[in-house]
Amino acid sequence: LVWPVSIAAVANVFANYLASVVNIVTADTPGTGIVMDDISKAIIAASCVLLLTIINVAGVHWAGRVTNWFTYIKVGALGGLVVLGLVMASKGSMDHFSPFWGGSSGGGSPVSGFAFGAFGVAMITGLFSYEGWTFSSYVAGETRNPRRNLPLSIIVGMLFVMGIYMLANFVYILILPFEQVQTSSWIAADVMNVLVGEWGALFISIGVMCSTFGGVNVQILVAPRIFYAMAKDGLFFKSLTKVHPKFRTPAVSILCQGVLSALFALTPRYEDIISYGAFTSYSFSILAIAAVIVLRFTRPDAERPYKAWGYPVTPLLFLAV
Predict the structure, then answer these.
(1) In the chain, what is the straight-line distance between the N-terminal and C-terminal CA atoms, in Å?
(2) Which of 41, 56, 137, 156 is the most exposed place for a label (fewest CB within 10 A)?
(3) pLDDT in tens, 114-169
(4) Neighbours of 224 (CB within 10 A)
(5) Closest Cα partner for 10 from 256, 167, 209, 185?
(6) At the topology level of CATH, where does 2-320 sit?
């Protein structure tokens, strides 16, 4: 479930920002554009998944090109939003951050205090944002000097993503009142609309569309190879080992994942999709991290190519969070 849910969630964001583009380009005056309903967006999300599934069945070459093109657009769009927001910070207000310390912004109600229940719910989407932190380990067998480069790739990747996310969210809250941040469906577009007007909102909406389209493609490209390898080792359904006779891709694995992902994508709300898979995903992460501690006792003499820095504090901290 983990991969199909993740694919569906990102496809849902793609559909939301496509709806934003449609809303902007069909508006004669602000607020008069076409507003897509949830069913339409769900169908678009599922269609996105199925289209990219077909592309991936057709070969790695085309799938790789799609990934590269959209990665460049993604980095440029998000980086541009952050830079523009910081340069034009005068259009925002630091008062928007007041709910974090018990005040209010824009006339809304102040935050009454910290609640563990609310924090736990918020962590679902927060942790989901970092779901790709293990991806580099999937190619450890093809990595030069993996003892050095694998931990380095995880650390550098996490720091980069954390930096981008924190800067982006800082800009979101700086420019928009906190209450609008909480309810906005197109937060990046709303920020750009404040900064430079509708053309900016259109630009960033297209950028987010490209970002999420590429994100869906990467997952569709990577995940079936894992299922294929597991099936080859006798750990998964044998039918998933079938390779397309012409394109030489694990077609059955790709198609099965695509259909399941498309079904999840028909769930209209992003939060609902994440809820389906977040528990399962982090259950396995918890088991993996707990195994680091268990194996220190059960196999104390085993060779350990990768060191758990800060052991046992870091594994215990992960499990606690």
Answers:
(1) 22
(2) 156
(3) 566 667 667 777 777 777 777 777 666 656 787 788 888 888 888 888 888 889 89
(4) 25
(5) 209
(6) Amino acid/polyamine transporter I (1.20.1740)
